[in-house]
Write a structure and sequence with these properties.
The complex is a heterotrimer of chains A (about 325), B (about 260) and C (about 300). With about 260 residues, chain B is an alpha/beta fold. Chain B has 10 helices and 10 strands. In chain B, strand 9 and strand 10 form a beta hairpin. The chains are: A mainly alpha (about 325), B alpha/beta (about 260), C mainly alpha (about 300). Chains in contact: A-B, A-C, B-C.
């Protein structure tokens, strides 16, 4: 600070109160030693890194769409795959995905929600129940391909289900079960305890309180969790390849014991082909897959918003 | 209203609930310490005391609502007409059907007004005359006139005071013998509080009511008997008038005259 | 009323108690499915691996430097697969760990609520993109880019896969770091601001150290995910098991090998076939221990602040 402008500078022609008012801002004025620049630079750097996620997403979507868009047509959606790229389509893969997801949902929802209800509402904090909880957390971290190895060993070979939709759906169910349980538990935990108390005070049993009050209140959260897990199952490839679903399938499964293919496997199939036109087919199939996932996620978001206002207190 | 004040030597008539040497612990912390208390029939008994003195815990022990709290242990007995509520072959669910409860914060179910009351009847296996029972319960709770035209609207649309009266109606629909109330007015405005207090006067002849409150004026206004709890101990129990005007214990006097708490 | 009659009033209703017990048992059974799954994973892996280890000693498996189950002479040294996995994991960590941490800092400490509301869903979308799509992206977008920059790049290479895996695990790191920062009590920040600290100083010297164990847990979980990632490496990293540290060469990871065996027509019951389970067992053990470590750290972190 230079003396003439400092707080103790003499300025006899001004009243002292005004002098003090001038002096104070100077003390609080930002220092010019580069601190501020470093602050701004760091903020900018963090923002740039964080937004790079969006850049990657845009680049990825743009690349895939540019490759796949020209191939997309109604015929592409309704034709079976073919050795000739211009005739090939994804109809069996789409239907296979539908079969797989249908069966997976059928298996996962009752078991997953049931397990969540048990752990949140019925289980006492015993060693066994703590073990179950820990076990679920660990299962959620097991690589998906290990589930494929499990499915191969148990469903395909030991239970002789073969490389069928049923074997695939069972494998997929085990894979997403931990995620469903964790999501459903969170939704159930978010239901205020006063509702349970009110039900008990009327002489309700645990199950009556859960069935009529806790579950309806937790339903939006549970549904969202289930839908997001299903979205994950739609995109999974590795476990299905491991149980041997990667084959040239040109038909649509008619029973749970039929062989099948799904969209991600069809994509893998075409992407790993050495001929260029098939890469474009893969791109088109990816556009369809991402569109399906986007729709599913949008439904989840819609449910979350639609029911948010009903949530208690 | 029966205004003749109970005389001191007039021991509480017929005890519906008897608490005998009851001790309740949360882990190592003692919440209720060797409390013995007789709750007389068709009277209003208030439990007062500073916050954290164990009054809610004691109240919840009367219909086994403490069963779901982890780490809670109990000693002593609670008798309902001579039956130990904590005996092995007693089903807590059946206990709560006879001894109802209203909570501090109104907690209606997120359903319609009608269903809030009908649900309790349904789970108790009552299928006859449900609409009539719902109406009667709402009338008893002095809520009928306000809601009769919108029985199928969400209960959450009601005001706080109306919600609390709905919760009382919900409990009354089961025709319990005892009604436990855990600070039922603490979340309400003065007008709603007054309405609930009026309601208590109407109910006192038919029901045995135990009400926990930190509001001493309220205890003095509505109750026939008052129990003063401090630090888990039952300091004094007697007819309300005597407790408030001629307390036997110094601590009670200090509390009711506002010198502490 | 007589006391005995009263007692009868409180006696449990048998039918209701029976139903309650049955429902409880059914729900417990649902919860037990998860335990059965774990047991089945361990049993299948151990059982089938035992068949493998009858013919190949574990020592040879773990220390051998040549992996050639399909060629004569056969060789079953898993180190090349481990090396390939390591290359991809380290590469993806270089991408995801710093970027994830910084994204977490931005989300928690800098972004306004509205920015958060936009950025978080974007990261969720990024995390929800199927791995086969990332694999395609790596093979047909990242690899050509790398080839243009480094002329020696092979068609299949570890670097391309590593970058894609890094992008895939970034949202997870960012989200767990964000949670960890949010869990740091505001009083700590206020205290630092009261001493005249600037925001960057508060973030780097107060918030980050306080949330360190959460950050580390997110890193360990991310590594575990990278180890187990399959489709990206299968598509982009190649099928050439070799001991190399050059990220621009084709390699093979453990997961990609499992896919290769299940794709091919390896006859069941042969040694080659059982390698699938032996490699699977190794993969399971690695990811499992990483997960256990991460969860332990996270639990300790939560206890600190709850």
């Amino acid at each position: 600070m230079s003396p003439p402008n400092g707080p103790h500078a003499n300025a006899p022609d001004r009243p002292s109160s005004q002098r003090r008012r001038d002096a104070l801002p100077r003390l609080l004025r930002r220092r010019g030693d580069g601190q501020l620049w470093r602050e701004r630079l760091f903020h900018l750097f963090c923002a740039a890194v964080a937004w790079s996620g969006l850049v990657i997403l845009v680049v990825l979507l743009f690349h895939v769409t540019r490759v796949g868009w020209p191939v997309l047509s109604w015929k592409f959606l309704t034709s079976p795959p073919s050795r000739f790229p211009h005739r090939a389509g994804i109809y069996p893969a789409l239907m296979g995905t539908l079969w797989l997801i249908g069966l997976t949902t059928l298996f996962t929802v009752p078991v997953g929600v049931g397990a969540a209800i048990y752990l949140e509402e019925f289980a006492t904090p015993s060693r066994w129940n703590r073990f179950i909880e820990l076990n679920i957390a660990n299962l959620a971290g097991v690589p998906s391909i290990i589930y494929g190895v499990l499915g191969l060993g148990v469903f395909v070979r030991w239970m002789h289900l073969g490389r069928s939709v049923l074997a695939g759906a069972l494998t997929m169910s085990l894979l997403i079960l931990p995620v469903v349980i964790i999501a459903a538990r969170e939704a159930i935990r978010a239901v205020p305890d006063s509702i349970r108390q009110g039900a008990f005070a009327l002489g309700a049993t645990r199950w009556q309180a859960v069935r009529d009050h806790v579950l309806p209140s937790a339903l939006p959260g549970i549904l969202t969790g289930i839908i997001l897990s299903i979205a994950r199952a739609i995109g999974e490839t590795a476990p299905l390849i491991t149980i041997g679903a990667l084959t040239y399938v040109v038909f649509v499964p008619e029973s749970p014991l039929d062989r099948f293919t799904v969209l991600p496997i069809q994509i893998y199939n075409w992407a790993s082909d050495s001929r260029r036109p098939f890469h474009d087919l893969a791109g088109a199939a990816i556009v369809v897959l991402l569109a399906v996932l986007l729709t599913v996620n949008a439904v989840a978001v819609w449910i979350r918003h639609r029911f948010e206002k009903y949530r208690m207190r | 209203m029966n205004q003749s004040p109970p005389v001191e030597k007039d021991a509480p008539a017929v005890p519906v609930l008897q608490v005998q040497e009851l001790t309740i612990r949360y882990g190592d912390k003692v919440a209720v310490d060797r409390v013995s208390l007789d709750i007389p029939e068709t009277k209003i008994t208030a439990i007062i005391g500073p916050s954290g003195c164990g009054k809610s815990t004691l109240l919840r022990a009367l219909n086994r609502m403490n069963d779901y709290i982890e780490g809670l242990t109990m000693q002593g007995r609670v008798l309902y007409r001579g039956v130990d509520l904590y005996a092995k072959d007693v089903d807590p669910v059946q206990v709560r059907r006879r001894i109802g409860m209203v909570f501090q914060k109104p907690n209606p179910f997120p359903k319609s007004i009608y269903k809030n009351i009908a649900w309790g009847l349904a789970i108790n296996g009552i299928r006859d005359g449900v609409p009539q029972r719902v109406e009667r319960a709402l009338q008893q709770a002095a809520l009928w006139d306000e809601v009769k035209d919108r029985l199928h609207d969400s209960a959450l649309a009601l005001s706080g005071g109306q919600q609390q009266r709905l919760c009382i109606a919900r409990a009354l629909a089961l025709e319990p013998e005892v009604l436990l109330m855990d600070e039922p007015c603490s979340a309400l405005d003065p007008i709603s509080t007054a309405r609930i207090e009026d309601l208590l006067f109407q109910l006192r002849d038919t029901y045995t009511i135990v009400i926990v409150t930190h509001n001493m004026q309220q205890a003095a206004r509505v109750s026939d008997y008052t129990a003063f709890l401090d630090g888990g101990h039952l300091v004094e129990f007697g007819p309300t008038e005597q407790v408030f005007t001629r307390p036997k214990e110094k601590r009670t006097e200090d509390y009711v005259t506002g010198r502490f708490g | 009323m007589r006391s005995s009659q009263q007692q009868a009033l409180f006696r449990p209703r048998r039918s209701q108690q029976w139903r309650e017990g049955a429902i409880r048992a059914l729900l417990a059974l649902c919860a037990a499915v998860s335990v059965v799954t774990t047991v089945a994973i361990v049993v299948v892996l151990l059982w089938e691996s035992a068949l493998f280890f009858r013919e190949v000693s574990p020592w040879e498996f773990l220390t051998g430097t040549r992996w050639a189950p399909k060629f004569q002479p056969q060789s079953f040294g898993v180190l090349p697969l481990v090396c390939g996995t390591l290359l991809v994991v380290v590469g993806s960590a270089l991408v995801a760990l710093p970027a994830g941490l910084i994204t977490g800092i931005y989300l928690s400490e800098y972004a306004r609520p509205r920015t958060r509301a936009v950025l978080k869903p974007i990261l969720e979308i990024l995390a929800g993109i199927p791995t086969v799509v990332y694999g395609y992206f790596a093979l047909y977008f990242i690899t050509p880019g790398l080839m243009a920059v480094f002329p020696g790049t092979e068609r299949f290479n570890a670097a391309s896969a590593a970058i894609a895996v890094g992008v895939m695990i970034l949202p997870m790191v960012a989200s767990i770091c964000d949670d960890a920062f949010q869990a740091v009590p505001d009083s700590l920040r206020q205290g630092a601001y009261a001493l005249g600290a600037r925001r960057r100083q508060v973030v780097l010297r107060v918030v980050l150290p306080a949330a360190l164990s959460g950050v580390i847990a997110s890193y360990v979980l991310a590594l575990s995910r990278a180890v187990g990632e399959t489709m990206i490496v299968t598509l982009a990293a190649g099928a050439n098991p070799q001991l190399t540290l050059n990220p621009l060469e084709a390699i093979q990871t453990m997961t990609a090998y499992i896919v290769q065996v299940s794709l091919g027509d390896t006859p069941a019951g042969t040694v080659e076939y059982h390698t699938l389970y032996a490699v699977g067992l190794l993969l399971f053990l690695i990811t499992f221990s990483l997960n256990v470590v991460a969860q332990r750290i996270l639990r300790r972190f939560r206890e600190e602040y709850e």
